[in-house]
Structure formats: structure tokens, C-alpha cells
Amino acid sequence: MPIIQHLGTAYASGDVAISSIADLTSQVSWTIWPNGGNYTSSFNNATDYYGSRAEITSGDGRVRHNEYEYHIGTKFNARTDDTKAAIFQIYGYNSSENNFNNFYGGTDPGNLWGIGVGWNQVATDMFLTNSIYARSELTSGNGAYFVTGGTGNRTWSFYDGGASSNSQGQSSTNREAQKSVNWAWGANEAARRMTYIVYASNHPFHAGKVRLFIGENLIHEFTSSPGTYDDIWMFSQHMYPSGQQSKFDAIDMKYRYATSAEIINI
After folding, report:
1. SS3 124
2. Among candidates 204, 255, 203, 206, which has minimal Cα distance to 73?
3. Span between the terminal Cα atoms of the chain, in Å
4. Could you give the CA distance from residue 39 to residue 67 in angstroms, rounded to a whole number?
5. At the topology level of CATH, where does 3-260 sit?
6. Strand, helix or coil at 26?
7. Domain residues of the chain, as ranges?
8. For 11-34, what is each residue's pLDDT tens digit?
9. d(CA 210, CA 142)
10. How far apart (Å, rounded) are the C-alpha atoms in residues 81 and 201?
């Protein structure tokens, strides 16, 4: 049987170290997003975050967005080596199903919120006091993110760069796809976890791909790819409408990331 050499480890062809999101969640070494940012003003922290009116708090990666059309981007990277995978995950929520289901901005297609990853640029290249979606600083092909009106069965749009739209709805600029996605409470927390995987550039099955999962379900494979760019940074953004702070506080989304040298065949 042929052997795949990957980062100093030999695998029989067809054998993989990680073959499900459950395996990934239990086997990689996670780093919680550290506390930082600023809930009431713009920020450019020395090592952690860049953006405005958002913070990571409580020591568990919990994100709070204050007011609309702002973002928080990481100055740290989910990976610094293109031959390894980067993983960005929403790993936890508030225990209330009602709070989860109420995370909706009232418009579909909407752009209440979205998360993503970027490369070949850094967080400080973005516009400090607006969302990444609303602007053009994120060059087409240098990122992968979505926007959605919230939980439930909603229309989602997937982008590879800034959408240049400072308004409600889902812009067609730099959009790869638009589709219906059911982000539901599910049977357990694992079923509603959201996971980005940026695969290694030398991956034997998914080289350089960026994929988004909810639970074990593949939601979107982006056309946009980092290729051999080493550094992968992350961001979270709140667009429209205004006055939704309490919904972010109620859903209590918690962020973490990891780097993996294993073959991930998911």
C-alpha cells in the first residue's frame, strides 16, 4: 500500500488521523481567544486585536459586539506555517435554546453577523471603524467569510473579499455563493458548533482549501484559497441592524483556534 508522508509522519494511503469534526474537536490542542478589544471604542492592542466596539471577555473566548458596522480582528494567527492546518471554531453557546433561536436581526437575506479568516494581509490593513464586509480593504481572494441574518433557516452569503456595502442585505460584490443554511439548536452543543478548517497547502486530499462546517455538516467550500501563505488570521463582525447588543450577550458565542499537523480528511 502506498505511503503518504506528511510533516514527518507516514500514513497508509486512505488512512487519516482525523476523519470527523468530533475527532478534530477532541484531538487538537485548542487556544481560547484571549480577553481583549474594547466594548465602547476603537482599539489597536499590541498583540491581540484590532477593530472597534467589540470585545472578548470572561476568559472563555466569549465575543460581545456593541453597535453595528464594526469588527474585531486578530493580530495573532491560527497558523504560521502553510504545511499545517488552521482551525477556527465557535465551541460553545449559552445553555438557553431560546437565546440561541432569538439570535436573528429580523431580515432575510440579512447581515447581522459573520465570521471568517484572512491571509496575505493583516488585521491592521482593515478599516478600523467599520465592518470588513462594508469596506473594500480586504482584497478579493485574500479571505473567506460569510454573513447571515442569524440562527434558524436563513439565507447566507459567502465572500472572498470586502463586499463594499454599508447597508442591510447581502451584497453581490466579491460573493462566491448564496444559499439557504439551517443553523439550528440541534440535539447537543456539538451539532451547532461552527468550524472553519483551512487545510495545509500540501494536504493529500484538500490542499489549500477553506471549508466551513456546522456540526458534522459541510456548509461551504470556498473557491478562495490561501495557497502557500503561512499566516491565517481571524475576524468577527456585526453589521445590520443596530441595537442588537443584547442578542450577542444572550447567545454567548465562544471562540477558539488551533493548528494541526495531522491529516484532516473531513
Report:
1. helix
2. 255
3. 22
4. 9
5. Jelly Rolls (2.60.120)
6. helix
7. 3-260
8. 334 445 799 999 999 999 999 999
9. 12
10. 9
